[in-house]
Every structure is written in C-alpha cells, then in structure tokens.
Amino acid sequence: MALEQYKRKRDFSKTPEPVGEVAAAPGDLSFVVQKHDASRLHYDFRLEMDGVLKSWAVPKGPSYDPKDRRLAVHVEDHPVSYGSFEGTIPEGEYGGGTVMLWDRGSWSPIGDPEEGYSKGDLKFILHGARLKGAWVLVRMGKRSGDKDNWLLIKEKDEFADPGHADKALKEGTVSVDSGRSIDEIAAGKPPADGKAEPRTFKPELATLSERAPEGDVWLHEIKYDGYRALGIVRDGSVKILTRNGNDWTTRFPTVAKALAKLPVGSAWLDGEIVVLDEHGVSSFQALQNALKTGQVGDMTYYAFDLLRQDGEDLAPRPLLDRKAALKGLLETAGSDILRYSEHVRGDGAEFHSLACRHGLEGIVSKRADSAYHPGRGLDWLKVKCRLVQEFVVGGYTEPEGSRSHFGALLVGTYGGDGCLVYAGKVGTGFDERTLADVASRLGKLEAGESPFCAAIPRSVQRGARWVKPQMVVEAEFANWTGDGLVRQASFQGVREDKPAREVVREAPLAVPGVKGGPKVNKKAATPLYAGIELTHPDRIVYPDIQLTKAELAAYFEAAAPWILPHLAGRPLTLVRCPEGASGKCFYQKNAGANPPEHVDLVSVTTDDGPAQYTAISRIEGLLQLVQLGVLEFHTWGATMPRLDRPDRIVFDLDPDEGLDPQKVVEAARAVRDRLSNIGLLSFVKTTGGKGLHVVVPFSRRHTWEDAKSFSKAIAESMVREAPDRYTSNLRKAERTGRVFIDYLRNAEGATAVAAYSTRARAGAPVSVPIGWEELDASLLVEPFTVRTVQTRLSSGDPWADYASTRQSITGKMRNAVGLR
After folding, report:
1. Of residues 648, 741, 639, the one with CA closest to residue 696
2. CA distance linking residue 61 with residue 67, whole number of Å
3. Phi and psi of 525, rounded to 5°?
4. Measuring CA to CA, which residue among 448, 436, 431, 433 is closest to residue 395?
5. Long-range pairs of 405-411 with CB within 8 A, sequence gap ≥ 24
6. Is 549 a catalytic site residue?
7. What does the pLDDT look like over 415-474, one tens digit per residue?
8. For residue 636, which of 697, 569, 552 has the smallest C-alpha distance?
9. What DSSP character marks residue 164?
10. Which string of b and e fits 354-390 if b means at least 16 CB within 10 Å?
11. Which residue has the higher pLDDT, 22 or 216?
C-alpha cells in the first residue's frame, strides 16, 4: 500500500524508473536529493523511513542559511531503490524530464522520527557529500489535493552558512554518482571515468603501535601533523575532501590550483596538507595560523597514495605499485606545493629513532604489499615520538591573574559506551589570538550541565563552565597519570576535520606480527603486554591447537580497540580457566578481595544483596584479567552510571544439537526483519559457537522490565507463527529440531558474551560482529578463532554505526508487538 500511488502514476513499460518494493532489510537510513529538470526545475528531497523514501519537492533547492525557509511539497512515497536512479523520464510520462543525483548519503533522526513525522516537526542530521549537519522539516498545513506544504530549514550548527543560501546549489553542478551535469545526462553522455566521485572520504587509518615493525615487508614514512585530505582531479577541476568528507577546496586554494595542473585526466590522491616550520617540520599550530591569517601560500600537500588514475582503480594494487605511479605523476608535475612522501624500506627502529632526533611527531609504517582498505587496521601502524592526540572540550575554567578569556580547557575522550570520560586540563600553548578564537567558539556552545559521564574532581567542578561536547582540539602532553589524566598538556590547535564522537583515547599496542615481540622486564624476565607482566607465557591454554598464553595475550592486545568499546562501563561476569580451556573453568561475578590494579569496581544490587563486580575501561585491565586465566568476558546490558536503565536488547539464538546452521541464519534474519518492520535497527554477531546474537541498541530511557517484556513479545510472536521452527521455552526438551530464542538475556543482571571475546572451547573461537550482508551458515560451521580473526580486525568494523545509533521503543512499537 505504501507504494500504490507511486506505481499507479507510472507506466513502467515506458519509464526507466524502478518499480521497487517496500524495503525490509535494515541498515543505514539513506537519503537522496535529485535535481529534476521536469516542467519546472526543482530538487526532490527523499528520506528513507519505514522501508520507503518519504519525498518532498523543493522548488528552490536546499539552503544552508538558517534564515531561509524553503518550501517543500510532500509528494508520494518512492521505493528505496529510487535513490540510485539517474536518467531521463520520457516526455509525456509522469515527471517527464532529466533526473540527476545531486546528493546522497545517510541520515540520523533527532528524537523519535515517527513521532516527528506524524507531528510535522521532523528533525534530523544529514551525512551527505553536499548536505551535512542538522536540518528540520516543518509541516505548514494542507494544500489543495493530497499534498502537504512543508518547510525545509537548516539548523544553526557548524555547517550553517548564513548569507550564502544557494552556494551549495551553485557549486554542485555535477552528479555525485556519475560526475555528469544534468545536460550531459540528458544528452546520454556516459559517466566520467565510469565511476562517481566518493560520497565521503573514508581513509585508511593507522593503528598506534609501541614500536616500529622490522623486515623488508614494511616501508616507513614520516608522520605529518596537518589535515588529511583527498585530492580529486577531473578534467582540470579539483575537489579537496577532509577525512570526514567535508569539501574544503576553497580553504586550500593554492593546493587546489596545483592539483588542477597535474598532467592527468582524473586522479584521486591521498595525503596531508601541512605548513612547515623553520626546521622543515610540519606544525599543526602553524597550519592553524595560516588558515586564520590567509597565508595559504605556505601550505604544502604531501601525497603518499594514489587511489585512482584516469579511470583505473588502483586501490586493490600493492602499496609499492601505487606509490610508484604517484611518484611518476608528481615528478611530471614539477610542483613545489605537491610533494611526494618518500619512504625507506626495512630498518624501522632506526628510521623511528632518526625521526625522533629531528623533532618529528613520529613515523607511519605500512605493509608494502597491502591494498588500500578504508578504516583502521594493522596494515598501517603509527609510532609516535611524542604524545599527541585529539580531545573533546567539555568545559573550561575562569581566567586567573593576567590571563584573558579563560583559564584551561576541560577535555575528555569517548569510551565505548558513548560516555565522555574526563581526561584533564589543557592550560598552556595559547597566545592572545588563539585565546580569543577558542573563547569565541566556546561562547556558542554554552551548556547548563557537565557533559562528562563520570564524576570529576570537585576541585575542577568549582567554578567550571560547561559546554556542549562538539569542539575537538589537539594537544601535546607529557604522559598519562594512573587516574587516566593528561599531564602538562599543551594546546596545538582546533581540529575541524574530526567529529567529536570519534575521539577516543589512543593506546599503543604490541601488534602481533611485528618482529621483536613484546617488551621484556629484564629483572623479572617476563614479557610485557601493554605494560602488564605475563607469567608463564609458554603455558598451553588451548591444547587442541597448541595456543599459548602469550599468543592469547597478543590477540587481546591487538583486539583492544575493538573489544574495549563493548566492555567499557559494563559489569562483567568472567569465565576463568586457570588450567586452560580443557581444564576446570568457573564463572566469577564478584570482584573478590584482591582485584587487579587496573580493573574498575562496580557496586551492584543482586538477589543476594549488594556486591562488587569487575569492569574494564583500559587495555591494562583487559590484559591483567587474561594473565589471571580469563577466557570469556560476559557483559551486562547496561552501562555505568545508569545500571537501572538497559541500553540494548539481545536475542540469543541457540539451535538444537545437530540443527542445520542455515536454520539459525534464517532465524536471525527473521528477527531482524520483525524489528525492522516496526522501526528498529539491529546488528548481528557470532557467539563463538553454533548460535548468533541479534543486538538492538537503544537510548537509556527504558526499564529492565520494558526490555524483557518487549523482547519476550517478539520471541513469542515468532514462536506462535512458526512453532515447528522456534521455541522460547528454556527447557532443553522443547528445543528438538528448533532454534531457542533466548530473551532472558535482557533481565537485570543477565549477561551475554561480549563482541571479540574468546570462548573457553576447542579451537579458541571468538565472538565476532558481522554485517548482515555477510551473514552465512559457514560462519557457524567454521567460526572465527584467535588465529583467523587477525585479518578480520584489519578490514574495518561492520558495527561502525552501533555506538551512534539513536533509537528507542515507542508506544507504537509496543502496540505492534501486542504490548499495552
């Protein structure tokens, strides 16, 4: 019924538009803006909701000026597949004219989207190639016929551009998909290079390592301190995208001009835009000053990768091949602004030592044979000479003495539970100009309460002024204290190329495969992993595959950036196996009398009264528990400090012994579709056994009883409809030939095995998040193990959007599953 009007208006034997159906599979909510040259030129604005594209015709197109209220006429729903349509609708057919994909990407609702849509006040955030930030659609009442008049308005945020209403429309003259203008599409010109410009730039990122790797398989480059940038060249036109996909071409005019002169039809270059100091060292502060004062002539673009050239996709080729092509291209250009990032092969430790002696930030080591993989992995490693990282500003102190504007910035980093963790003060490194600039930014972000999740020292709270956690700064500091605070932090500049939510504390890893192994405490003669002594490293933990305690520690050290976000802030139930996986194991809930130094203690209330549970927030705590023989980490469904409010639902799909694994896969998809049909996004992971977990993250607005009753209703509705396939009864006898849908994981105090946790089972299997598109029965027949998951870690996170997913169980959803 949702697409009935769409289909009734079109003759699909004459129009190339897709017939389409209501989409059932969940995923990122998509949006698209199509420039439509019909009887009148207009822009079709479409948001994915309830399996279709809710659509509005915007005659004048979107405006970045918050004062500009653009008319948006609500029209019939379109299929989600329409979001990729670009072409010409024949004259005489409904909507006859040329359609160009002007923008597309994903969107995130602010609040309950169904409620906002119903009330005519729909607020959302766009993550597109051209449209970004917060927007709102406001209904203005009925027009004649069945079409509503709405207004499309840009909210005031960092992306707003007052006074330049049509700037984006004037600059966006070609398709984000094919690179063609609307006239070229009408004329039937083939797409440029056969591939579109990227909707956003997702660069390959380096993992912080304790030391430089050795061996000729690694090449080493200088680590630059500037803005990561993708330079896109096509027929003399240039676009420069930041790592977050922002178009900063106009901010780097000299670099753009130099790129435009490259002797190439088209190319995508990856590199860093920097300003060098008097010693030839890149300085982020100098770059910031150049941007503020307009001294753009001082900027240099160090290119270190070439992803495409004249229509050829180079990303799958080995790094050395890509760099050879890049070097040849830049040598023919002969530009002082565009420079090739040189490298050395092998001798990583010596190169790192040399970089440090020359005052550089550090080096980046890359596998010479690796393809280009967006996201953070183990093919690229960064080794720093000094401690520098980004922080989120959550507040500031009042100035004292002769200081103006403010005293110190109160900063933090985000933990895996989405909480902003206080990390200390940044009080030096400012001059009068930067004090005034930062103070001006802070004034626009004033807030009435602290954005930090956990309590911060009272001495800091007194007289503190709080701000919304949106500004990211870079700071250099001496070290981390035992309490997780920075010492002697010095301001380096404001980072506008990185979202606040992506700022986490960086912890260097002893990466497996990096020759040299872990550091050794010579006095104790025991290896150190993340600074934690490992006794009996050669003890066999998994006898069937002869996996040692040292290998297990190395896995958890490498996997720390992936597993810690799923552990942080959650009370743990641990499975300890002092004699290894084949020996006697036991569950441990209480922390005990002598908990390890680097773990946290959480006070909880159980049926037996008050208790102290273990929690982990740092890699050191993780490795200490591995040292104590912990092989499994099971987590609560709530995070501190609100343990009375769950933030997820887990459906544990446990098959009967010998059941076809494909039945479990089908059960997971059935749960996903049932959730999607009522508006909930879900994620899936293996359990390290024969089952699967379907996980639904949501805001901490519900009680434990809400979570349990809702998940029970979902499970029991599936059992009623297919009693021969599913059961929700805990008794083993009821599982014969069926999949047990365990909703009891959602009771207070119940736990589920954490993502990336090992299991105390033969083969050292690991519970691994996967994408719905890759869900296959083979993952249950041959699960990921400690030895096979390493490649997986370097290929990106299929749950990258988990932490940012904002949704809740609405009254409409409860009604849909039979709850009142």
Report:
1. 648
2. 14
3. 55, 35
4. 448
5. 405/435, 405/436, 405/438, 405/439, 406/435, 406/438, 406/439, 406/442, 406/465, 409/438, 409/473, 409/491, 410/452, 410/456, 410/460, 410/464, 411/473, 411/475, 411/486, 411/489
6. no
7. 756 688 899 999 998 988 899 999 999 999 999 889 998 778 887 888 899 999 999 999
8. 569
9. -
10. ebbeeebbbbbbbbbebebbbebbbbbbbbbbebbbb
11. 216
CB 703 within 8 A of CB 644: yes
User: How many other CB atoms are there within 10 angstroms of residue 785's CB atom?
Assistant: 22
Tens of pLDDT, residue by residue over 360-395, are 889 999 989 888 887 776 789 999 888 889 999 999
* DSSP strands (E only) in 618-759: 630-635, 648-655, 683-686, 692-697, 726-727, 739-742, 752-753
Beta pairing partners, 614: 572, 601
Q: Token pair for residue 602?
A: 């959480």
Closest CA to 641 of 604, 611, 607: 604
Q: Calculate mean pLDDT across residues 519-531.
A: 54
Provide the pairing of β-strand 683-686 with 648-655.
unpaired
**CA 523 remoteness from chain centre:** 42
List Cα–Cα distances, 83 to 18, 466, 468, in angstroms: 10, 41, 34
Name residues whose C-beta falls within 8 Å of residue 171's C-beta, 6 or more positions apart in sequence: 247
Using CA of residue 67, residue 71, residue 72, residue 74, what is the dihedral sign?
Answer: positive
3-state secondary structure of 325: helix
| Model pLDDT for residues 129-151, shown as the tens digit of each residue | 889 889 999 998 654 445 689 99
Place of tokens 């106009």: 250
| Cβ atoms of 576 and 633 closer than 8 Å | no
CB of 554 within 8 A of CB of 615?
Answer: no
Cα–Cα dist 468/116, whole Å: 23
H helix runs in 678-772, sequence order: 704-721
What separation in angstroms does the CA of 193 have from each of 268, 311, 372, 400?
12, 4, 20, 59
Query: What one-letter code names the amino acid at 177?
Result: D
Name residue, tokens 């398989």. Answer: 217
Cα 406 to Cα 403, 445, 449, distances in angstroms:
7, 14, 18
| Terminal C-alpha separation, the chain | 26
Report the distance separating Cα 750 and Cα 121, nearest Å: 38
Q: Please say whether the beta carbons of 172 and 153 come within 8 A.
A: no
* pLDDT for position 715: 94
Model confidence over 104-123: pLDDT tens digits? 888 888 888 888 999 999 99
Residue with the two structure tokens 């092969």: 345
pLDDT in tens, 161-181: 888 888 889 888 888 878 889
Q: Which among 132, 223, 239, 663 is annotated as catalytic?
A: 223
- What's residue 145's pLDDT? 42
Please state the φ and ψ torsions of residue 21, each to the nearest 5 degrees: -135, 165
Other Cβ atoms within 10 Å of 55 Cβ, number: 20
Which residues contact residue 616 at a Cβ distance below 8 angstroms, ignoring those fewer than 6 apart? 564, 567, 568, 572, 599, 600, 622, 625, 633
Give the pairing type, strands 547-548 and 630-635: unpaired
Distance in angstroms (rounded) separating the CA atoms of residues 820 and 815: 6
